[in-house]
Amino acid sequence: MNQETVISVKDVHIRYKVVKVEGIKKSFFSLKKTKLEEIEAVKGVSFDVYKGEIIGLVGKNGSGKSTLLRSVAGIFSADEGTIDIGDYSISLLSIGVGFKGELTGKENIYLSGLLLGFSKEEINAKYKEIVNFSGLGKFINMPVKTYSSGMHSKLAFSITAVMETDIILIDEVLSVGDIQFKKKSFRKMQDLISARDRTVIIVSHSNETIRNLCTRVIWLNDGEIEMDGETEEVLAAYEAYMEELNPALLKKSKKAKEEEKIMRLVREEDESKKAEEAAQDAAESEKPTEGAAERKTETENVSKDTDAAGSPDKKPVKETEPAEETKSDSTTGDGNA
């Protein structure tokens, strides 16, 4: 069966320049021109993503995961190579990306929606759902620059989750907000991912998040693809590499622990809910229906009548004796003779 290619990345190189600092004091008083150092964050990366795939990007810090994700989203341009997403709509869910600080939350919803390719009418239809999901209430009419990082992330997640683009890119944001919003977000992510036609690429602090959500994993190492394949196989190789490189690197970060805590809580709540529903279904199945109750009553009444008929107090019905056969006149024939 032919698979439909949604994202095609071919020999992509991404470079950026940073100021080379030898020391703050020396740099401040130096009259010489500041030196710039070129960093190649992504080095000749190629891969295809097919419709409906859930892909996890893993790699140690500085391996180019976020840079690659933002390039796929169109925020960064590739210095070499091509990234093709065809006519599909795409959204990036990442802290600190996509909002204008001077604009209110409401204005940013419309701006983000338009940039994602939705019409004003489509945004109008989804606006209340976005605001309700975010839980921002009256703060939706305040400038985004006054938001905390948690409020910012709530709004960003709500826009991406409710507008539902064909491709969703998630950059380490599954552990933002308060505990209730985290659980709500994780459930929403599960719902979005379960849609067959939706394609998702996830960068996460937690290997367990990748393990639970993704069908395929790409391992980036120093800007290059080290391995691309089935989730368990790639994660096992990546974890073995990190253990050998430095066991401390495998120590779970605070965000990774938060993500895993949310997954555990959601799983426990879902299992508890399923158990309650199963118990209710079992209780309902044991209750006789109205028709069955009537039939049971009728059967019991018939049984009582039958028992009463066989009781010694009841006089037996007298059997009717058969009538005697009429004897033929044996002399009739002789008399006629």
Q: How would you characterize this protein structure?
A:
The chain is of the alpha/beta class. The protein has a domain at 5-88 and 166-276: Rossmann fold (3-Layer(aba) Sandwich), CATH 3.40.50. Helices cover 45% and strands 20% of the residues. The protein contains eleven helices and nine strands. The strands form two sheets. A six-stranded mixed sheet has the order 5-6-7-3-8-9, sandwiched between helices. It has a three-stranded antiparallel sheet with strand order 2-1-4, covered by helices on one side. Strand 8 and strand 9 form a beta hairpin. It is globular and about 100 Å long. The termini are far apart.
Coarse shape: globular
Give the overall average pLDDT. Answer: 79
Order of H and E elements: EHEEHEEHHHEHEHEEHHHH
Distance between the termini: 108 Å
Strand order of the largest sheet: 5-6-7-3-8-9
CATH topological fold name of the domain at 5-88 and 166-276: Rossmann fold
What's the CATH architecture of the domain at 5-88 and 166-276? 3-Layer(aba) Sandwich
Give the CATH H-level superfamily of the domain at 5-88 and 166-276: P-loop containing nucleotide triphosphate hydrolases
Biggest beta-sheet profile: 6 strands, mixed
The helix fraction, in percent, is 40-55%
Beta-strand content: 15-25%
Uncertain ranges: 323-337
Backbone CA Rg: 38 Å
Query: Which structural class is indicated by helix and strand composition?
Result: alpha/beta
